[in-house]
């Protein structure tokens, strides 16, 4: 008899949607396991929204590159008919070290052709969902439950409780499963079951020590379409990542670290005050300061967190964690969604390799993906220094390495970070960056900065001691050293006598 498997996929983000596609496509193989897939998400189905609705539901721009695109391209027609043309191809990167020191890198020098573009996260979700609706909308093996939030996974009895979010008085629903995929993002409910069910499960959710806001601006005349920018000190003490958007716009994300005091102008609720601050300080390109001011005051502060886990599978719960549920990350290297999509592809490949034997696939998934997920979060956070002087040094070093590699490729290896968008495994890039010494150095510096801030914030170390650091250190360590030396000297002298 043909094997049947009920899989519940929690979360219709990029990871959950691509995993749904891969599993439903496995049913096309007549003799293999038959999958019944239930997809759950508290939000709306972006695949059923019209262009206006989707435009209103815009989220943030994402750089989609080799890891994500390769996963998508494994599904025939998905890229060509649903994804291609949704975003803007990256043509160059502009790096601004200071107001006057800027340089550009052409995408063709560091990327494979047709391998990188930016697109709104929700446009990707809409495209993946449209593919599902077109190809499996009437399939009896597929049930979508949008506007349903998963509340709890009962691993012992293999069912999941969900609650409708549509305001109806409908009661909580219990769904039986054979396997559950936690694709439910950073606050994963499926991951909670790992915490409850496994004493050896280690997990942490940490902030990335930053906060900021983002504005959408018209593409200036002197900036080519498809230009990605990183501008250090775009506003005093604030860095900016700028990604090209469709409709000749730029998505300007501005942020700083939590240990830096926010200028009162940027905290103002008066758009004119914010606009004046932009007019005085913004230097990356011409900007409509009034519009930026209006957008700024009409949004709250953003902050981003990251997640680390020591394994992504549970045989006991018959569950896997994919995407941000397993490895949410700071977006600096632009690989979070790429890795989420690659997780779905890795699961599909393992199901092929182990002929749909989930008992074998689950531990193998951790074996393959935990190193990629942890490399992702650590490369994202520990190759960017929270100390701006170190950050400038790192950018200059990377640029020198790039140039040396261009002219002496037999002598100098390429910068590993530039190889990731071309397809280098994150774990391999991590290995190379570790050997270059960069990660160890930045990890220490970043961790020290964060710890010092925490200690001051909660009052473990008082401001006085920190302020009079040298005097304090002399008193704390200098006096005992002097006293000990005096004792040794005195003993030595008495022996001589
Ligand atoms: C500002 C910013 C810029 C970024 N830039 C990039 C970039 O350039 N490149 C890149 O690759 N990545 C980038 N990322 C990261 C990327 O957005 C995420 O890594 C990606 O969206 C993760 O996909 P996911 O499907 O795992 O999770 P998510 O996108 O978080 O989706 C999770 C889904 O689960 C649903 N859900 C949550 N809780 C429940 C529940 N209890 N029950 C049911 N469903 C639930 C949510 O509604 C959501 O639809 C960026 C992120 C940010 C914030």
From TrEMBL:
Pfam families: FAD_binding_3. The chain crosses the membrane at residues 6-24. Its cofactor is FAD. It comes from the Eukaryota. One of its GO terms (molecular function) is monooxygenase activity. The keyword Transmembrane applies. InterPro entries: FAD-bd, FAD/NAD-bd_sf. Residues 169-353 form the FAD-binding domain. Coiled coil: none annotated. Keywords: FAD, Flavoprotein, Membrane, Monooxygenase, NADP, Oxidoreductase, Transmembrane, Transmembrane helix. PANTHER family: KYNURENINE 3-MONOOXYGENASE. This is FAD-binding domain-containing protein. It comes from Cyclotella atomus.
């Amino acid at each position: 008899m043909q094997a049947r498997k009920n899989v519940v996929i929690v979360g219709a983000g990029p990871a959950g949607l691509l995993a749904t596609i891969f599993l439903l496509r496995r049913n096309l193989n007549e003799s293999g396991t038959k999958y019944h897939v239930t997809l759950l998400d508290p939000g709306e189905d972006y695949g059923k929204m019209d262009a206006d609705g989707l435009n209103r539901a815009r989220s943030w721009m994402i750089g989609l590159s080799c890891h994500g695109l390769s996963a998508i391209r494994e599904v025939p027609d998905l890229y060509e008919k649903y994804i291609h043309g949704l975003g803007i191809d990256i043509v160059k990167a502009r790096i601004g070290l200071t107001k006057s020191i800027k340089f550009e890198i052409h995408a063709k020098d560091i990327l494979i052709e047709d391998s990188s573009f930016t697109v709104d996260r929700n446009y990707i979700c809409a495209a993946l969902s449209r593919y599902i609706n077109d190809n499996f909308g009437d399939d009896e093996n597929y049930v979508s439950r949008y506007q349903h939030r998963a509340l709890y996974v009962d691993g012992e009895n293999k069912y999941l409780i969900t609650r409708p979010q549509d305001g109806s008085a409908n009661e909580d629903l219990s769904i039986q499963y054979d396997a559950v995929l936690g694709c439910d993002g950073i606050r994963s409910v499926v991951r909670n079951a790992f915490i409850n069910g496994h004493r050896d499960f280690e997990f942490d959710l940490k902030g990335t020590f930053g906060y900021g806001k983002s504005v959408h601006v018209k593409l200036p005349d002197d900036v080519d379409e498809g230009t990605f920018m990183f501008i250090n000190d775009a506003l005093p003490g604030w860095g900016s990542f700028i990604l090209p958007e469709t409709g000749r716009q730029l998505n300007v994300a501005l942020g700083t670290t939590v240990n830096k005091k926010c200028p009162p102008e940027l905290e103002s609720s008066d758009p004119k005050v914010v606009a004046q601050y932009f007019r005085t300080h913004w230097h990356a390109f011409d900007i409509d300061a009034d519009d930026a001011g209006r957008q700024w005051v009409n949004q709250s502060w953003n902050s981003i967190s990251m997640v680390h886990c020591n394994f992504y599978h549970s045989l006991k719960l018959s569950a896997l964690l994919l995407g941000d549920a397993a490895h949410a990350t700071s977006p600096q290297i632009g690989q979070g969604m790429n890795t989420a999509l690659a997780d779905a592809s890795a699961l599909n490949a393992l199901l092929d390799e182990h002929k749909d034997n989930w008992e074998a696939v689950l531990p193998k998934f951790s074996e393959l993906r935990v190193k990629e997920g942890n490399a992702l979060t650590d490369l994202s956070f520990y190759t960017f220094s929270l100390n701006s002087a170190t950050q400038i040094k790192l950018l200059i070093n990377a640029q020198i390495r790039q140039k040396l590699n261009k002219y002496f490729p037999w002598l100098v290896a390429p910068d590993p970070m530039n190889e990731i968008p071309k397809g280098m495994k994150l774990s391999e890039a991590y290995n190379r960056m570790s050997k270059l010494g960069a990660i160890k150095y930045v990890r220490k510096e970043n961790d020290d900065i964060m710890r010092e801030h925490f200690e001051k914030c909660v009052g473990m170390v008082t401001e006085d001691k920190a302020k009079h650091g040298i005097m304090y250190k002399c008193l704390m360590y200098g006096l005992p050293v002097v006293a000990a030396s005096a004792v040794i000297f005195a003993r030595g002298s008495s022996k001589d006598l």
